[in-house]
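Need a sequence for this fold. Nothing fancy.
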């Protein structure tokens, strides 16, 4: 939440700052602003609303400066307005600061600073830092990095801060605690940013900053220190994403592009996972066979869409590996004294690797002695760095706020983990594992087939655009798919959407059904357990009460009572979510377009939820 960038170099700073903010806007779009160091004074421009408002304000004639900071905001303290927009400036008008996160003790700081004569012009928690830094910089004879080190000691909460001072415009200083900050190493220019997408157009060399580390950049130097001022040797790495991955590539929206990238994302996540002697290769877990055999319980911690991948992990691991799995909403986990022992393995699932709720749950689990494996899409982000091991999904950058390709690759990751454990602990034999693995390999082609026949679904969706409620029904592994379909629709179409387990229908939710209520049913794969038949009864029950029924069903399944049937290719029951999710993504996308909503940046949301 909130995108941050700092720049020092030879370019006119407005250009790389605005370019970076375009790539960071998915992190928040309540306001945007920049501050430039221009010969002994600061130039500050900030506007409520999307980045476009700031860009128009800058059109007149932005001053020439070679350093600056920029921010795109997801509001926490203080509503989205011009005066609450970042950067925030001290009373001398010379020091500017931007912030991602929450300063928990901001009100006591504010009172203390006001009693020292500082006047405030916003309702934000961030402004306190501008005034605090201003005082500390004076105490440190103009050394902004030293001031930042002291400021952090006085702050509680989670934050990334980046600051600039007009008297030393070639210097930009940043710090991170629990929120992300990366350094981009250019040729005669350097960057600080919330993520690498901000500067990927300029450099692929990066440094990840550690917890409570302060960084000071100039056009040619990068110095990192801990809070005691001791130098830290930077660990440089090469960014593997290409700049084109952060472009729309001819699609109208990033979300649509990312939906269509799913066959490749799934295929990439599967590459190299079965050895010649038919063993699932997951060295990434860094667990010996004995350690795997000692697992007594698995707990998945995740939020939102990633939580739905966690629910799928439960079905797959319990079925294949015969190990009990709990799935926990990360924000609830640490507050209820979970039972954790040496036999507990934690799976932390996160696309961004920065979700604060998941990070805090991970820390709690580690502190209680559990081993934590992360499933993550973002290299070197905080969750994988703090986990004991990480299995990276290979979805590439996901820019649209609504998660699509990351989810499908998370599902693949949990299937691989389930198969690996099952093979090691003997719950499945090598032949069974190989058969299931071969089914996984078929999935990219099947997703592609769904995408090639998606046009009628898009047209159908538009006929539902005026509905203000849509219900989703699933059973067994189709239940998380129903929840995901509803979540996507809520966040994109802004309508009431709920997912239910089909069996729960008669225990209350059926009262919601009225004449014309759309109900989307994920029909289970036909199986001797008769689940599909039970769901067919649910179809009749909702139809009898006037619902318009849309069924997602595998090719060949016989269905009565549906107004529309969306066919998906045949796959083993446990793998069906990878396919059944895709039409629901398209449905939510098309509804958002038809209702005139901002698909890539839905209201009130942000891509990385870096506050609790
Ligand atoms: C929904 C969505 C969110 C995220 C959730 C967790 O489309 O994107 O629900 O899934 O905020 O984010 P990560 O996976 O980054 O931890």
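Here you go.
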């Amino acid at each position: 939440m909130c995108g941050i960038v700092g720049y020092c170099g030879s370019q006119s700073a407005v250009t790389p700052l605005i370019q970076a903010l375009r790539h960071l806007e998915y992190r928040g779009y309540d306001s945007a602003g920049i501050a430039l160091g221009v010969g002994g004074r600061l130039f500050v421009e900030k506007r409520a609303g999307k980045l476009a408002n700031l860009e128009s304000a800058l059109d007149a004639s932005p001053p020439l400066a070679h350093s600056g900071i920029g921010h795109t905001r997801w509001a926490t303290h203080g509503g989205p307005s011009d005066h609450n927009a970042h950067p925030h400036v001290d009373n001398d008008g010379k020091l500017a600061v931007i912030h991602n996160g929450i300063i928990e003790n901001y009100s006591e700081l504010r009172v203390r600073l006001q009693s020292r004569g500082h006047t405030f012009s916003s309702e934000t928690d961030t402004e306190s830092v501008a005034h605090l830094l201003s005082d500390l910089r004076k105490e440190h004879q103009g050394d902004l990095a030293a001031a930042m080190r002291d400021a952090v000691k006085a702050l509680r909460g989670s934050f990334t801060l980046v600051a600039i001072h007009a008297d030393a415009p070639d210097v930009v200083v940043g710090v991170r605690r629990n929120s992300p900050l990366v350094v981009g190493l250019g040729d005669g220019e350097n960057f600080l940013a919330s993520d690498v997408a901000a500067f990927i157009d300029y450099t692929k060399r990066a440094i990840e900053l550690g917890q409570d580390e302060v960084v000071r950049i100039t056009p040619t130097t990068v110095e990192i220190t801990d809070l005691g001022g001791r130098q830290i040797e930077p660990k440089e790495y090469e960014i593997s994403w290409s700049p084109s991955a952060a472009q729309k590539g001819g699609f109208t929206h990033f979300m649509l592009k990312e939906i269509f990238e799913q066959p490749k994302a799934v295929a990439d996540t599967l590459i190299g996972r079965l050895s010649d002697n038919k063993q699932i290769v997951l060295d990434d877990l860094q667990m010996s066979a004995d350690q795997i055999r000692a697992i007594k319980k698995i707990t998945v911690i995740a939020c939102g869409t990633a939580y739905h991948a966690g629910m799928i992990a439960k079905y797959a691991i319990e079925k294949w590996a015969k190990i009990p799995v709990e799935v926990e909403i990360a924000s609830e986990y640490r507050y209820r004294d979970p039972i954790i022992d040496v036999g507990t393995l934690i799976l932390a699932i996160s696309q961004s690797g920065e979700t604060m709720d998941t990070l805090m749950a991970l820390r709690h689990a580690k502190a209680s002695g559990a081993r934590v494996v992360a499933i993550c899409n973002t290299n070197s982000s905080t969750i994988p760095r703090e986990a004991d091991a990480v299995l990276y999904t290979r979805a590439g950058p996901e820019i649209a706020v609504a998660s699509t390709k990351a989810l499908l690759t998370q599902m693949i990751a949990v299937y691989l983990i389930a198969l690996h454990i099952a093979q090691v602990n003997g719950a499945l034999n090598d032949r069974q594992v190989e058969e299931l693995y071969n089914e996984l390999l078929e999935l990219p082609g099947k997703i592609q087939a769904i995408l090639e026949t998606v046009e009628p679904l898009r047209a159908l969706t538009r006929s539902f655009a005026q509905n203000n409620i849509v219900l989703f029904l699933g059973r067994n592994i189709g239940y998380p798919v129903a929840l995901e379909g509803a979540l996507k629709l809520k966040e994109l179409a802004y309508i009431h959407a709920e997912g239910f387990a089909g069996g729960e229908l008669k225990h209350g939710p059926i009262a919601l059904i009225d004449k014309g209520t759309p109900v989307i049913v994920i029909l289970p794969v036909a199986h001797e357990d008769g689940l599909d038949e039970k769901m067919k009864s649910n179809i009749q029950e909702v139809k009898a009460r006037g619902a318009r029924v849309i069924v997602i069903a595998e090719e060949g399944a016989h269905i009565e009572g549906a107004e529309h049937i969306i066919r998906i290719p045949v796959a083993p029951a446990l793998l069906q979510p990878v396919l059944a999710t895709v039409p629901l993504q398209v449905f939510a996308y098309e509804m958002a377009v038809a209702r005139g909503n901002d698909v890539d940046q839905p209201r009130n949301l942000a891509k990385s939820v870096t506050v609790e």
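For context: The chain has three domains: 3-239, 254-448, 455-594.
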